[in-house]
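Board work, copied verbatim: SRR1-like domain-containing protein
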Amino acid sequence: MSPTDGPFLYDNVSYQPSRSRKKRKKHAPSIEDSAQSRLDRTIAELSSSAWLAACTTLLKQGLSAFGKRPSEILCLGLGSPCASAEARRQLCFLVHLRDVLQICPQNVLACDPIFSDGDVSCLRQCDVVQLTDNKMGKYRLDKPSIAFMPHCTATLYENLLRENWSTACLSNIVVIGNCLAEYVDATPVRKLQTEYPCIARLVPYLVVHVFPAYAPHAATFFNTAVQFAIMENLPAENDSFWDLPEASLVHADDGEIR
Ligand SMILES: C[S@@+](CC[C@H](N)C(=O)[O-])C[C@H]1O[C@@H](n2cnc3c(N)ncnc32)[C@H](O)[C@@H]1O
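↓ predict structure ↓
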């Protein structure tokens, strides 16, 4: 991938004041700060962090309570790894998840309508498959799966849950993303009932393991948690809990949910 594929980011690179054209030629940097080297630096930073070790322990504890071994990761709303250091760190975390859970690379799928050609090359370098079928979050998860959705909008979570609104499907899903309870706390009751009924109904049944803050870059994994429902606690299949109101319409001509 060429470094011109995405905006050049300066994280971990010291700023050099601009020089005259002549001098610039003479002192042109010999090592290009390519997308690959940015990824490599991010992987090195994350993998040496105590934070990653702590999250891995939390994840394993959570999965042991979940009781199934995920064989797939669906990643939604990653953002642009070329243009955003947040997205790049989250991509490295996704790769870590895959490796630590020994999930086959072909079962690690990522969809975000903002992916550029450079982002797609980045995904390819990381052995992550780009999912081109944008279903606005409405993916049916028929096998035990992790939905990795860092900082997605409530609508995207809602669409995923609605598409999987049965004990059979919900029993397959571990969400690694925003604490869903925060959406409930932040949204007026009426809006919750009409626009986010699945989130509102599911939250009381969720087991939640909140990741510690990632101190060097707190925004990247802010409010991120491993979450899944305890099936035995969910209402019986004939309970009104499972009857949802009509889905509210989301207009997104460009496939992007805001
Ligand atoms: C708030 S941003 C989060 C970006 C990044 N994960 C972060 O934490 O900085 C939400 C992301 O959801 C993505 N998104 C919007 N609609 C989507 C869709 N239909 N499927 C997947 N991702 C979508 C947006 O493009 C955006 O990158």
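Confidence is low (pLDDT under 50) at residues 1-32.
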